[in-house]
Design goal:
Layout lengths: L2 H14 L1 H4 L4 H28 L7 H13 L4 H12 L9 H10 L4 H12 L23 H15 L9 H18 L10 H12 L9 E4 L6 H9 L7 E6 L2 H13 L7 E5 L15 E6 L32 H10 L1 E12 L7 H12 L3 E6 L12 E7 L7 E5 L5 E2 L4 E2 L2 H13 L7 E4 L1 H6 L21 H28 L4 H14 L3
Helix pairs in contact: 1-9, 3-4, 3-5, 3-9, 3-12, 10-11, 10-15, 17-18
Length: 530
């Protein structure tokens, strides 16, 4: 996608949000805008595909709408066309409920929200793939307007704005634009964004790590048990050379965010057979439990130091049982880590973002960390800069884990200073990511940046993985030249003496009166330090 084309799409979509910004928070209006974009995508794609099935080549959506309407109302073509669309897309829309038809109704002044709501229901009821997909788009919310007429008007304005884009023909450009919008909403949502979005720079870093050496692998499988909007998973599609064969597995607790991930997959042209998403509590009930259960890569950005039940029954859960202890109730970080690690293939790679506390906290967490180190499970620890996530300003760490290792050493990378300062957040630029990836690949010591610590060294540190213990980033101050400093002081004293002499000279030249005499004597006393 060209930069000019991307900018046009991004700007048009973001401008649509202006209609809602004054009415509600970004965490709310994202559901409306993203939902309506998705509905238009499904509608437009169906119209063009229907025309192709009928061996027609429409010039635009209006012509495609006309062709579809005629075929739909023709008893000879209706059934075959509907069956073909259901086979290819798992949904159909009545001609009067397509996005194109609804916008035409808006221009004619007879648009009704209930028609759009019916379109939503038609798609949701057509297949499990789309079940409850639009449930967060409350078309009758008072946030849209205090009356039914105002609600109707608000939605109509958004639809007219979105209608200017030929969404069905944008391909991956639309998926990228959708990611852009999610990122913009995350930025505007602040802490709430942590529920659904991992910044693209961090996603890229983690994805390139787990794909290292497997870029050409067909059928690559990736799992994210805390997938949010799916942005972390979808980065694999960007960096593999076999994007059409990747199998995506993801779970998300928040239903709204889960629906966002489903839309995101479809808009990125991931076929229904290649994405397997689940709405559930990752820690409470293991998933997936049916084949496949282990994956080539695990990517995770779980909620930091979240609370969980830590029920004793989990000691018999195969995800946690071999470690003998459970992560504390107040900090589920290691529970998420162990869950992801359990689902990793012996030949796979896992990358997880967590707060630094997991590197050095004691108690049960210390015992789990020691066990992982004794097994050689922890491969790399990367310290990221502070303030690069939307939901927290604290510095975080990416921990890389593997199962099939022939040693127990750990690579430490201190990338805490690898960023560009932004207006609201620090940014990992491409050159920062490239530096980290290059260091990860070479696995060598780099002065004040990286160190490969042998197991014995880690054991001597009582299995504490705090990065400053292994990477010394201290910069000595330049020695002070005492001779130069002394000369500078002497020169400064001489300059002060000269200035005082000049001031005395000016005071002596002043005309002395009874009123000014007292002032002049006082000024001389000050400069004589009396």
């Amino acid at each position: 996608m060209s930069e000019k084309k991307a900018t046009t799409i991004y700007q048009a979509l973001w401008n649509s949000a202006d209609i809602l910004r004054s009415k509600m928070d970004a965490s709310d209006y994202k559901d409306y805008l993203l939902g309506l974009i998705f509905y238009k995508y499904l509608s437009d794609t169906m119209l063009y595909h229907a025309a192709a099935l009928l061996e027609e080549e429409p010039a635009d959506l209006k012509e495609a709408q006309k062709i579809y309407t005629e075929a739909y109302n023709d008893s000879e073509t209706h059934d075959d066309l509907m069956d073909a669309l259901m086979f290819d897309f798992y949904y159909t829309l009545e001609p009067q409920l397509t996005f194109t038809a609804l916008v035409e109704a808006i221009h004619k002044g007879n648009f009704q929200l209930e028609d759009l709501a019916q379109g939503f229901r038609n798609i949701e009821q057509s297949s499990e793939l789309y079940e409850n997909l639009f449930e967060d788009v409350d078309l009758y919310s008072r946030k849209l307007g205090s009356t039914a007429q105002k609600q109707n008007q608000t939605i109509a304005e958004i639809m007219k704005e979105i209608d200017t884009l030929d969404i069905a023909h944008e391909g991956d450009a639309l998926g990228d634009a959708y990611e852009y919008l999610i990122g913009q909403f995350a930025s505007a949502s602040g802490k709430k964004a942590g529920e659904f979005y991992t910044p693209q720079a961090v996603s890229r870093l983690m994805t390139q790590i787990v794909l290292q050496g497997k870029e050409d692998q067909k059928g690559f499988s990736v799992y994210d048990p805390t997938m949010g909007s799916g942005s972390l998973l979808l980065n694999v599609k960007k960096f593999t050379n076999e994007p059409g064969t990747v199998n995506f597995f993801g779970q998300e607790l928040n239903t709204s965010t889960y629906n966002l991930a489903r839309m995101n997959m479809i808009l990125h042209n991931v076929s229904a057979a290649n994405h397997h998403l689940h709405n559930g509590d990752t820690l409470d009930a293991d998933w997936p439990t049916e084949e496949p259960t282990n994956f080539d890569a695990v990517l995770m950005n779980p909620p930091y130091s979240a609370k969980w039940s830590a029920d004793k029954g989990f000691l018999d859960d195969p995800r946690f049982s071999m470690y003998g202890v459970l992560a504390p109730k107040s900090k589920a970080d290691f529970s998420f880590l162990l869950h992801g690690y359990y689902h990793l293939k012996d030949s796979g790679v896992m990358a997880i973002v967590l707060p630094h506390g997991v590197l050095f906290r004691g108690g049960a967490e210390g015992k789990i960390r020691k066990s992982l180190l004794e097994n050689g499970s922890i491969d790399t620890v990367i310290g990221l800069p502070a303030n690069i996530f939307f939901n927290t300003s604290i510095p975080t760490t990416v921990i890389v884990l593997k199962k099939d290792r022939d040693n127990k050493n750990v690579l430490f990378i201190d990338a805490s200073n690898e960023f560009t300062k932004g207006k609201n957040q620090n940014v990992l630029e491409d050159e920062h990511i490239d530096k980290i990836i290059d260091t990860y690949k070479k696995r060598e010591d780099v002065d004040k940046f990286a160190h490969v610590a042998d197991y014995d060294e880690i054991e001597e540190n009582d299995f504490n993985l705090n990065i400053p213990r292994y990477v010394d980033t201290f910069e000595e101050e330049e020695p002070v030249d005492m001779s130069a400093l002394s000369q500078e002081i002497i020169d400064l004293d001489k300059e002060i003496e000269k200035t005082e002499a000049d001031i005395f000279s000016m005071l002596d030249e002043l005309a002395v009166t009874e009123d000014s005499k007292e002032f002049i004597e006082a000024a001389k006393a000050v400069f004589n330090h009396e």
